[in-house]
């Protein structure tokens, strides 16, 4: 996969792209990450990329020319998904991450100031994505978040190919609790079932704990699931205990 980011502050990505899973993914050849300064494509000798809004109002608006020039130059005729990081966009979810992970080519647009010229939205962008109902100073941090969520899903990136399958939201549920050594830490003990060696019972416990945690913290997620009779009984049991 190729991922290209257009930003006014490309240095923000240096540490994130050069560490942890994103660094390893590049070393394994699973992804190519590149960041370009939007100012390089300004048509103004002063490298101006924003201007006052028509009709007046506070703030500055990103001009269309640099964005169009940049995307056309880096895509070279290809038609990738062009993703605008924007608080007005579609709420980012694990399902969206899985969808984007199937692409070969992604371009992320990160803006600042008051907003974008509307022609960027209408004629350049394929997806508008938001990471939540709040406003940040720019699209860089949201882009990093989405890219991290997408890249970890690519084949060969994680140590175990199915590591992401049990992640929270991948199954529609929150993930079950995890424990490691020591089995007894300051009197706080690991559940006996996890030490039993009975894998069938362990899987059943984990499934029940996923439902329990989801009921406690995100009951809204259950509304979108098609539950089996067995899962309905699990939920009824948990509710009676709660």
UniProtKB/TrEMBL annotation:
Protein localization: Cytoplasm
EC numbers on record: 2.1.1.228
Cross-referenced InterPro entries: Alpha/beta_knot_MTases, tRNA_m1G_MeTrfase_C_sf, tRNA_m1G_MeTrfase_TrmD, tRNA_m1G_MTases_N, tRNA_MeTrfase_TRMD/TRM10
Keywords noted in UniProt: Cytoplasm, Methyltransferase, S-adenosyl-L-methionine, Transferase, tRNA processing
Binding site for S-adenosyl-L-methionine: 111, 131-136
Family: Belongs to the RNA methyltransferase TrmD family.
Coiled coil (residue ranges): none
Protein name: tRNA (guanine-N(1)-)-methyltransferase
Matching CDD domains: TrmD-like
